[in-house]
Amino acid sequence: MAIRVKVRNNRQIIVPIRFARAVTGGVVIDAPDVDDRGFVMGNRPGTWGSTDTRGSMVTMTEGDTVRVEVLREDIDDSAPLFVTSSDIGVVSVPGPAGPLGADGVFSIHGIVDAIRRNVKIQVRLGSASGPVLGELEPHIFRLHRVRVVAHLVTINGTPTARTAASLTPLFNGANDIWRAAGIEYTFREAETRTESHVGFAVAGQVGPDSTPPAATDESARVTLANSDPNAINIYFVNSAVTFRGLTSDRDFPANLGRGVILVDVGDANDLAHELGHFLDLDTHTGDDINNNHIRDDVATKRHLMYNFNPYAANPAHQADVGYGARVRGALIAVKDFAFDPTDGSVARSRRRAIPVPF
Amino acid sequence: MNGTTIGRVVARLVKSSTAFNTLNLPPPIPIHFQRSPDFPQGDVRGIQGMDFQVVSGGAVIQVGTTPADGRIDVRVPPGGSSTVQLLFNTVVVAEYVVTVDPGALDPVNRIKGQQQRLRMLGYQIGHVGTDGDGVDGNQSLVFERSVLDFQTDQGLLADAVNPQTQPRLTVRAGV
Questions:
Q1: How many CB atoms are closer than 10 A to CB B110?
Q2: What is the three-class DSSP state of A6?
Q3: pLDDT computed for residue B11 by the predictor
Q4: For residue B104, is it within any domain?
Q5: Total domains in the fold of chain B
Q6: Quick one: pLDDT band at residue B10, thresholds 50, 70, 90?
Q7: What is the pTM of this model?
Q8: Which of A57-66, B16-25, B104-113 has the lowest mean pLDDT?
Q9: Three-class SS of residue B138?
Q10: Yes or no: is domain A17-141 CATH 2.40.30?
């Protein structure tokens, strides 16, 4: 079907394609989100080198094969498109030779975490050597493994509903999200610890923190207990007054406890979000460190580090940003823009994921 | 030069005329095919090497190959349309039906005005609306995405509501 173009003011630019996540709805490990915010590439860590690509970025773990979709925004559905790699030593495009299928989905295989070796995935018209319609910059990361230790917590006799066995699928879900950043949280059921507390205000519940936080806060009492210094400690509790998840990372005063608290209604996305906090990621709600400006746009809601899950369904067109009704997305930002001090999340979290103790 | 105009019409207007007068076709409309939106600022965005032809009134009036800036100058008859056809091995693989709106754009503080400018700059706003070009005056996920794209590309705080957006959109669109 022909594209209709209505020219105004005697000028017109046509950009035929863009890139997107290969699926909609829940997280799928081999279909990472695409950082398609703008066509500029943002600030680049020194190891990335420069690029003349203008488009999206996608991240993946070395050795993985992931799927990405080409959206035919301004080109016929029947136009034959071919996907190629500019450097098959870094990333390849497996699959049968020939034009892209009707669903627009293609696969890319990350071969090596290559420093200063820029690579482009290019969509071409007509053949594998045809003109380039659009470009995607993939980043391949060697896998970092981060040990986590789970704690099943009982408060005033009310335990978390979770069991050690039930945690495995929860961590698997969080790892599905973090795979795109080349980070894996290693959880072993046999290492799960249990603790009991008494004297809390409400059975099973963690109350609000005082200002400033104190070691006597109920959250601090939870995270100070029985922690493993060589792991991220994750404390599972029945409920909390003000949060689904709460994190005090290693920059937090040690005497106030460090770790993640997750309530029973928290899901894998919530766990992945809190683990992001532990790896130095802030929430994607503010344009300054004091959250003086709250951003609630459709891109922000796609971030794993968006503050609210589920989020308010207002305005109506934001009801689903690609992950389901009112469900926060799982994008771990790889682009790094000056306007957002919380950007560049992949690079920042990977830096923090290497050293121990926590 | 990005194509060859075939349809230049020459005619003797009146019997007493002492010279041939030239009836020019309408002035060409520059259409840029690019890998990313907005006009280049020291970088290369054009889609080079696409074979094309322009069809109007049932006749091929222009053929060529896109240069580095991806520009095709398209002649569109007043009140009518021309079709840009992209070719591969002489086979038509994509078509663009081009019409011209001679009227003024809507004000930039209206959604329609923003959509018109974003569309002009190549930002992808879908194909809803009576003209099939995404200009319908309504909020949508795709429209908001395009606003965020524009803000990001301009180095503005990308939040969809930044008040610097409308004046910047006016500057970039030139209207």
A1: 13
A2: strand
A3: 36
A4: no
A5: 2
A6: very low
A7: 0.93
A8: B16-25
A9: coil
A10: no
Residue ranges of domains in chain A: 17-141, 144-282
DSSP state of A77: T
Residues of chain A with pLDDT under 70: 285-293, 358
d(CA A116, CA A149): 36
The per-residue b/e assignment along A338-355, b for 16 or more CB within 10 angstroms, e otherwise, is ebbebbbbbbbbbebbee
For residues B46-70, give the mean pLDDT: 97
Cβ contacts of B175 on chain A, cutoff 8 Å: 9
A21 touching chain B per CB within 8 A: no
The strand pairing partners of A247, in sequence order, are: A260
The alpha carbons of chain B give a radius of gyration, in whole angstroms, of 19
Contacts of A10 in chain B (CB under 8 A): 29-30
- Is B52 among the domain residues? yes
Chain B contact set for A331 (CB, 8 A): none
* Residues A191 and A148 sit within 8 Å (Cβ to Cβ): no
Q: Which of B98, B126, B157 is the last residue of a domain?
A: B98
Contact check, Cβ <8 Å, A131/B32: no
Same domain for B83 and B127?
Answer: no
CATH number of A144-282: 3.40.390.10
CA distance A104 to A352: 36
For position B39, which CATH number holds?
2.60.40
On the question of pLDDT at B80 being above 90, the answer is yes
The closest of A246, A235, A245, A149 to A195, measured between CA atoms, is: A235
Q: What's CA B97's distance to the chain center, in Å? A: 10
Q: Is residue A177 within 8 Å of A330, Cβ to Cβ? A: yes
Position B132 confidence tier, pLDDT thresholds 50, 70, 90: very high
Residue A341 is predicted with a pLDDT of: 79
DSSP A304: T
Whether residues B136 and B162 share a domain: the answer is yes
Structure tokens at B130: 């009576």
Residues in chain A: 358
Q: Which amino acid is located at A48 in the chain?
A: W
Instruction: Return the amino acid letter for A216.
Output: T
Domain boundary (B98, B132, B149) is at: B98
Residue B106 is assigned to a structural domain of this protein: no
Q: Cβ separation of B49 and A3 shorter than 8 Å?
A: no
Is the same domain home to B25 and B76? Answer: yes
281-300 in chain A: CB under 8 A from chain B: 287, 293, 295-300
Contact A153, A162 (CB under 8 A): no
Tell me the β-bridge partners of B85: B53, B95
Which segments of A126-224 are extended strands (E)? 132-141, 144-155, 158-159, 183-186, 193-197, 205-206
> First and final CA of chain B: distance in angstroms?
26
Domain containing B119 equals 111-173
